[in-house]
Fold these 2 entries.
Entry 1:
Amino acid sequence: MAEPAYLVASDSETTGEEKSSSPFPDIAIGIDIGTSQCSVAVWSGSQVELVRNTRNQKLMRSYVTFKDEIPAGGVSNQLAHEYEMLSGAAIFNMKRLIGRVDTDPVVHASKSLPFLVQTLNIGVRPFIAALVKNMWRSTTPEEVLAIFLVELRAMAEVQLKRPVRNVVLTIPVSFSRFQITRIERACAMAGLQVLRLMPEPTAVALLYAQQQQQSVHENMGSGSEKIALIFNMGAGFCDVAVTATAGGVSQIKALAGTALGGEDILLNMMRHLLPDMDTHFSTRGIDEIRRMGLLRVATQDAIHKLSSQSSVQIDVDLGNGRKISKALGREEFEDVNWEIFEKCESLIKQCLHDAKVEVEDISDVILVGGCSNIPKLRNIITGVCKREIYNGINPLEAAVRGAALEGAVASGVNDPFGSLDLLTIQATPLSIGVRADGNSFVPIIHQNTTMPVRRDVIFTTVHDNQAEALIIVYEGDEKAMEKNHLLGYFKITGIPPALKGVPEINVCMDIDASNVLRVFAGVVMPGVQNPAGPVMEVRMPTVDDGHGWCAEALNRTYGSTLDLVTVQKKGAH
Amino acid sequence: MYSNGVGHLPRSDPLRFSFLHSTRLENPPQFVSFRIRPGPAIRSSLNDTISERPAMSFYELLGIPETGSLVEIKQAYKQLARKYHPDVSPPGRAEEYTQAFIRVQEAYETLSDPRRRALYDRDMAKGVHLAFTARRRGIFDEQMEEKSEWKSRWQSQLSELKRKSMQKDSDDNMSWGARMRRERNQSS
């Protein structure tokens, strides 16, 4: 206790250069970067408040337009009309593109956007460009996101009258660790320090946990455990979480997610209205882009209307003699998108199954995100969960409010009324494992494992006197290994000469309190206490943008010469 | 953004611990900047020699009687999570708290699953009640179980894939990797 001042200094704001005199020093803000819209919220001292821009908006469109010298995003920029965003000069949907390679189906689906998304289909990052004065100006999703985050940061600094550095961001459940590094990169470019990246439904779960705790305080309720299912569907992604909540602790039981959202519904409908859309717009001249914009706006408008009315009349003149005039019924809309709705239903069922939760155990069903008004989705969810939808949460603000709560908690803020006595126990959204047993994916940390965690699996060699082994780390739960996300690879060398199946190669994976993944690998010979040679420690992901072709190249170069198989203990199952 | 991490590696300064505990609020923990080096425990797990733990049963760890109900187990778990989860640990002690949390998590996962709890109780009755060794074995068994489940799933999927790739052969547009895999599968 002798020198507290020194210790405070050493542990407070890391660089020490941004000392703020504000009464709320550096409470991390919550940011929800949606595919379509984004928002910022912060703990105000007694509650969470959304930060408004100069036009008094709480929700801002996520896009950056490149038409002038200085790019401008949806925070500061005022769109004269929706069509301006669709003129080719604006890049949007960056959340769907970030960290993806040009063989990814989501990237291919983005090729019908008004800006340029070019693919070579070899597993490198796609080429993205905005149309500026009839020239394609190249950019990257990270750059676009960073420009946007700079605007958000400036807006928050003006409104809060203090520097903003620390943030909690929400991300889709299905984001791989590689995509997370891209988000972190964009934040770093914008001068933001990421305290946490929360899967969106877990942020909603935290908000729910706080509400439950408050109602317990107020009504002297039982305070027993409540199970909630959270379904979040925005423009780009669909996420599900099952949480068990008690006493302000939100324990994530299971997560499920996929890159499926309103954008896919919109594309389906555009193709339905104009079946030869792709050939129609393939040349991508200024006129084609303008026509595509007209179709997009008309279709979007019709979809919105179908949430409240049973049919809608679409009349759009695309020019060059193409006119679409059609009455569209809600049933037709649901038929066209049946595959998407079916996938949503199966995600919910899968998540309940993974959480080992029976439908009867669910206390509340929470539906959030931009698609939450679609009647068909509401029917599916109430049908599966046999519950009415929880109405205590604003579906468009839930995630950002949860992120702001987490930001306050992570910044060490205390609330005299106990509103911040909160904790999220996170689970791994995707399995992490290695390639072994031929060309199989062997998970080491399974999906929905509580974090932090450490797990190991023992492998052995497939050849006599095999001196080296390749550890290729993947993340995901896709059936085909190639469809999972490659996180990195390294080689274990110096395996002592022995018959195949004798050396024990221990691969251990560790996710620490800051969600950092480390992979350890060491060789142990039977009957020997210490590892043969130094143990490898690799922080993952190590791959870079061109990771799409790495696995193929490794396979081509090494085949099965450096393979591993899992050890089946004698007498085990 | 990780450039600040170095200054925050946990140090074993006793002064720091006693002080920080009482000043956590004024002094927000910067979780992201902790870049904890895995401690000896991780390395020793490679040698499978983790055993220096106090021999506490899972019930003792959660602080509940052996007759404790599921509700009690869940309550105890959430209370201990609030105490030991690294998110709420005092700065500099995240690693230590992580270890404690992982043990609490194991106890909870075992005792909240009726099947695993019954196995654990049986082991305890036999006198094999060293929590950590039992835990190690439990995990290993479980992993093997999961793995064999995975394996059978993979095998059925693999055969499906093989079937599909045979159909594709006629297309003659296989990738290098696919061709190598096919050759390997055929030769084995």
Note: Residues 23-194 of chain A form a domain with the Nucleotidyltransferase; domain 5 fold (CATH 3.30.420.40).
Entry 2:
Amino acid sequence: MSDIAPGLQTALADSPHYEFVSNHLSLLLSSYPPPFIFIHDPETVRLTASLVQSTLHGLASKSPTSGESQIKYACVNAVACFSPRILYDTALNALAGWTPDWRDGATNWHGSGAEARRYNENFDAFVHGIQTIAAGADNAGENAQTNGAGKGKGKAKEQGAPPNRRLVLVVERAERLKDNLPELVVPLTRLGELSQVDITTLFLSEVQWQDIRLPLRASPEPYYIDVPFLIKQDTQELLASAYPSPPAESSTSAVDVDAYHPALKPLYTHFIATLCSTCSPFTHDPIELAYIAAARWPGFIQPVLDAHRGLLKEEEIASSAEDGDADGKHEPHELQPPTEDTRLRLIRLFTPSFTAALESLYPRLSNAMDWARVHAPPVDLLLMPPGHAPEALAAQVVTNAASLNTQHGPTEAGIEALPRMAKFVLVAAFLASTNPARSDLRMFGRGLDERSKRRKRKVGTPRKPKPGTTGTAVKIPQRLLGPTTFPLDRLIAILGVLLEENDADTRPAAPQYTVSGEYTEMEIARVALHANIVELASMRLLVRTSPPDSLDRVPMFKCGIGYELAIKLAKSLGIILNDLVYEVV
Amino acid sequence: MDSVEIRTPKHLLTTLKRSLGSPAPRGSTHIPPLGTPRLPPAAPGSPTKHALPLPPASALRQRRLRTPSPEPVRPPLVSLSHTARKAAAASPSKRQRNQASQRTEEGLPRDLPDHLHPLLERQKRAILKALQQPPEIDEIEVYGEDYPPTNTNAYEQLSDLLMGSVVRGEGNSCLLIGPSGSGKTQMVERAITALPTTPIVVRLSGYAQHNDRLAIREIAWQLAQQTGTSFLPAESDEEDEEDAADPPATVEQEASGETLEEEGDDDENPFVDHAPAAPSSLVEPVITLPPPSHLLALISMIPTLPRPTVIVLDGFDLFASHARQALLYCLLDTAQSCRTGTGAGSGMAVVGVTARVDTINILEKRVKSRFSGRMIRTACPTKLDHWITLAKAALGAPCTGENAEDVEEWAEIWNKAVPQFMEDERVVEALRDVYALTRDFQIFRRIMTCLTLELTDISPYPTLKMLKAAISRQRCPARYPPLNTLPYPAICLLIAQVHAQTSGHDVFTFEMLHDAFKNQVRTSQAAPVQIQGGGVGMAFERLVDLRIFLPAASPATSVAKEFALHRCAVDRFAVKKAVEQMGQLNLRKWLTKS
């Protein structure tokens, strides 16, 4: 279940920082554990989860000496186990060492022999399953399962009297239990006393227990283990020691085979140090940093590898020219760690791209592989004159991006392709969502009497005090509070104004419309327009807030696009949006 | 007398020192128990003449007889090892320094020799074991004239009641009420194991059985597990060990025959399921539940089972919230109508366990009238000495090893280290702080567990610092990670939130904070230029994940993420502190900007 790179995992196991947690945990679990343990780690919860798993794996694979119990554990992830049955089955399968097999119908563990039944009906059945496992009744079932499906914990040896078992149930991301399965939180924490067997529940979360527990003290208080905060120095050491082993020759990865050559490890340490100092103000998570490092390192090391290959080629030419006086002299040139000068040059060249990597990779606007491809440096970067290298790098990124065609996000490309009327609708929807309805007459009213009316009202209203001075809250512009809903009629009316002012000249001549505005009236009454609106709503560029199946009500909508997109659309239609927005940005 | 009653422990401590430092110490010095501000009126520790005429012989006899003595006979807190006595014999002013110097030269090796390291591990295990099964302590000594404590009384009442059901075949019901961590569950388990014969025990919990249907199914299952072989097909092999003690099958046939006689309308035993009703499972099941229509009849036939039954209802108040309280009604009615002396049935006891004090009031009238009304109260320890004695007993748990010499050497060192630790006034003070907040035994156990786990080869003896760390970790762990460890954009968002709050908006959207942030970046040149895009949004999500920003409205699909309303769970002072700890001038400027 753990999805952490093996390099990071081994580095983690050796890290002195986490020794505290693993020591506490293994001592507790191998002696006399409390029935409920809560591990709180606000920062690096995934690392801790993998650490807990490896600790438990170590404990479970240890053959028990006299007086100790055989530990069996199950790790369930509360994100993956979103229903009680999935949780029960996952836990029981892992505890019983049962792997569902495709050939026998992928059945879940159902006990063995005569005791077989379904253990996922409800919590009581789950408890019965746990009792069965704790009593050691699953041994027969595991032995019967001969087709290699078992997890093979080496338990088949102890056929005789089974040692007493200690079960451990780890729930990762336990904060999700409160949202998904609130009825299970209390029983899981009381599993020990409910099942009357030796079982410890271990919750692992980035949220403190206070925020998960249910009211009225229904759950017992856990034994707290707080994972200490990982300081920058530790993060750096952890990442540097997680230098990946070179990939196998046959691997199909896009990364250069020599990119993780052992000789480059010192350079990698420097690289990580620079990366950490650039990125650590924004994220402390070692996994995120490792992701960014994995995306940047192949490009970073490419110039060194290029230089090395160039050297090899020259040697080859030279040796072929000399032509074999002594073949033994010319060993293939080993990859040397680059000089201090090269290192400084590389770091200076690539440091700006660290921030770019953070910008697009941390929110996962792009993925590591695409990003690495786009930001691959030009060939033989180190041979260029130092003054030109940065420009060459930037130019290469542009050409890469153009060739890979990942410049535009899919949303923007889709919006460019919208029909002209749909763009008008979107701009109108933006205006309808942003402007207050009472300002419509002022913003869009084009009649003669409108001006005098407004002036009259303006005179009548008393002077309002300056906002923020009287104790009332400062008014927040509507565009920060989000779009408001509007009825379809209002959208059509605003659309009419926009069309009349910006679209009327471009239409084909239609002599049958004589009154001014009649043509526009016709346009906004077309079925195609309504079809357009429905389509936009299905694309979520308009959000329909009223139920779709009511015929007798006016449909209500909300704008689904932001200010930037709206102003871009308006510009393409020739509308000056800022003149029409009530609160100027 | 009144003056003694209001005396504070500190004050008592000074009197203790004075009396210890007096030139003519008596053979048995009486020292008042320290843990309690509420002193027994006749506390002999006070230097009044009331304390003096107590013949030690009578005290000894009383202790031997194990009857509650009217006065605390021994100093429970300071056990007056020779160390303390020596230290106390010096003048009070020099005492502290004296003790400190002794501690280093006391004979505790600063670095533990290598061959003792395994023994430290064993000692840790022994302590953990002792914490799991709390050692017996001398309650008479701890409680003095308050003996017996509530729990001892409660235990006697409970075991009397269970005995009545098990031995005499009565139908009983009672309610065990007490705060959590006061030993209710443990007491029930202890009382059940102490019974002369093994009853059928049905354990239900209101936390697991949310409705009566689940509860009755569970009763049926547990009864089927424990009542044995005759109800089951012959090939069943694995059963609980209780089945070995079961009467042979013929007797059980009679028992089922009795069922037939007593319940004329119920023509077959609900446990015997002739047609296995689980076609989905691959193998023929052994224990099948009776069909649902028979489930309610199950309860009324509990007294006809061959062995007496004890039904433990944990979370009793939750069962009262079930529809019509039907299960409680059936159980209590059956228990009440249990006839003794006829020899036909065996006894039945219903024990409700709850922490809610008004449980009796939430029972419906018809249910309440079936309940015997017996309410047994448990309580947490009423004296700090209880904890201290427990701590001493747990820490001093004997450990064993292969090498007898090493064990001896270790025991010598360890038996010196533990009293040294426990006699430190600051240690007692720290424990008293916890005790004043909660008397839950669980928290005591957690603190001691944490303390034990902290012992390492480098620092093998418990210290005050470790205890304090353990207390702060276990008593009330911080709700949020320290704010100054948050990433930079997150702190910026917190500052923006503080400003939004000042201008009257407790509820904010991401866009509001982002706008404020962008303005700040634009107006002050000092702000970092690196942040443009994603970092801020990720920081916002991170704060939501950490529950520092809480959603103020239920999530709706029609509201875009950046406009969802949130409120902040930390106040401005915490933000201010974090900003000061980060020590970045531009952030501090922004925060203080009005």
Note: Chain A touches chain B through 71 residues (CB under 8 Å).
